[in-house]
Structure of Aminoglycoside phosphotransferase domain-containing protein:
Amino acid sequence: MSLHTASDSSGDSRLTALQKWLASLSAPELQLTSLRSASSDASFRRYFRIDGVNGGSYIVMDAPPPQEDVRPFIHVADVFGATGVSVPNILAQDIESGFLLLSDLGSTTYLQLLNPDNAHKLYIDAIDALVQIQIHSAPAVLPEYDRALLLRELMLFPEWYIGKHLGLTMTEKQTATLNKVFDTLLANNLAQAQVYVHRDYHSRNLMVLQNGNPGILDFQDAVYGPITYDLASLLRDAYIQWDEEIVLDWAIRYWERARRAGLPVNPDIDSFYRDFEYMGLQRHLKVLGIFARLYHRDGKDAYLKDLPLVMEYTRKAAHRYKELAPLVKLLDELEDKAPQVGYTF
């Protein structure tokens, strides 16, 4: 990501408003001229870093209404923070303008630091934090991850990946095949025990801290839903891949910890792993649609390079289960007809 000072962004009315808001804060005391870009994400949100007069740094979130609403972030920060995991503290807020001042969890993501030597420790830390969040789960605190929402996510795949990215229109028979696979996935997803779900618990949203790993970011879309969802996000990460035997080992370690903690995971390890794979497949199909939409609608091409890995996950998971095999056949049919230019990422 490119770092620049705030003064580089002339003509940015939101930045001007943000600087004015920061200048109005009495505590903590800030070095206003130090405001600089920290990162942006796949939404309309962007983040700045600013130094304190007395040392240290802070993060400023700019979440422009009406596209963004900071209230879910504030709520989930409170809910997750109460479980004892590491999330940013909210130090100042202007809800109507969409501005937040946050404690700084650093600039080193899991993705930046992960390598075969440190991966096991970092992933076990992330698994322990996930269990810590889940054991505090309660209904009616976060929105429900219901069938309508799960299906709406799945429908991003035919609309954006097949329709827009591959440029294809499915036949009635192909649509029926895909819908049957969706029904199979949803039946499994909805039968799973319900816990707090971060929804993007992966290497780009987990920060490496000196203690209290991981620092957890980007949790504003958290819901109450299937227990394997965040584990699938973590271990079937769209941005980094690990060997199957390592993923299986980490999944089993999560399962053992979850059972010890009294979490309602499937007591049979094979059934639990099937739940994990079905949930992962729901997420992969959603992500294929989202990445295609980010490119075709929003002009963000950085995610195109990640499509092949997500498709690899999709095919491998579907290939392992008889009920999901029709998806592999459908993908073969579609990719055979699609223009080859669609695959040169």
